[in-house]
TrEMBL record:
InterPro entries: Arrestin-like_C, Arrestin-like_N, Arrestin_domain-protein, Ig_E-set. Pfam families: Arrestin_N (PF00339). GO terms for cellular component: cytoplasm. Residues 20-143 form the Arrestin-like N-terminal domain. It comes from Mycena metata. This is Arrestin-like N-terminal domain-containing protein. GO terms for biological process: protein transport.
Amino acid sequence: MTTANPQLITIRFPNLVRVAGETIEGHVDFNVPLARKDGIENLRFEVRGVIRTQIYRQYGDAGIVHKETVPLFSSVDSLWTPESPDTGSDVVSLPFRFKLPDDLPPSFYRWDGTVRYSLEAVCERPGKFHPNRRARQIFSVTPAASKNQLLAKESLRQGWTGPWKETKKEEKIRQGIWGEYSHVYATFSIPDLPSFPIATPIPYSFQIVTETKTVDHSDHPDDKHGHPLFPAPPTLSTDLTQILCRKIECRVRTDNIFSRTKPKYTHHEKRTETFDLQKNRRLEEKDRKAPTDYGQTESITCTQAVEAIVDEPEWIPKDHKSRGIWRRSVRFTSTLTLPFAPTLSSETIDWQYILQFVVPFPGLTNNFKLEIPLELGPGLACPPPPTGAPGSSNHSYADVLPAGPAPSILDLPPAYWGEDGHDWDDDKKS
């Protein structure tokens, strides 16, 4: 919350994650004597949501930031005028109520792409040299979960008993540039769901199976000198890397000065954010051509303890009993809790998620990589309207209510809550 004059005007609005379709309400505390003394002619209140993208381009020695703002909604209401009835109190509490649209995208913030929501109370003063007084508050929004999404969330919370979806990959590798290949097989298993609710534990298993090249039976996979036969599977979760990638594309449409038949020219910017799920931290971005809103790594809790089940090596004879291969298998199981904005596709910004496992083996280009696309969906039901509001009731629209209170923040950096970049459309800035 920001206030130009806390004695004049203050917004009272709980800082919780709001759900698209929800009816929000709060109060504006307004000092009437100070307002009359300050020449306030009107107190207006605005609820607003925007998607804002900006792309940096270098043209010779000069750099230009191309910008575009797409309005999501805007509602303006007058709360007070000098003709409003006198309540007999110096400070009046003026209520506001507004129903958020049903199809809002999730809050999001990066330097080149933002989805942001705000409240603004403006005390209008006449005259060019009399700046308006204002108070502002930013809030966050997530899409509403459907009934099926809430049922899936509850099933995950209680322990998944439904079908699983497997992603498999096989790859041939060898330690040198010559000779027979060894084999690596990977299987990733996750509940078979079209999307996964955010901030909800998701169980998974990741199995690695390795097969050596043809060797003598006497070549035991774990020799006494500590040099296991190639390729040895990882036996500790720290031996592999678990990464969540968020691939973001921002677009800015600008006037095309070189063509009358094509009035708009679209600038594109793609980049990938990475989160180390084992170390529970956001990784710093490399080779950025424009400013970034993360100057350092950030802690994000995603992964619980990982359990490793190591099978005994299995000998598989070939043409001769003394010749064959050693097969080794390790299975890792754990849960992922991903507190990120649900997957989005819109006119000017979209993002998607890819889960990535990397298993390093000795030798050049022997990093085994398995990628699994993940669609993240909302996990909160739209609350019923407040008591007394049109359509109010004692029940949510969904049969299954979310457990526990809504989180206060969903992967939003401090810059989201600042005032810069909101494009508040008032011609007299205070």
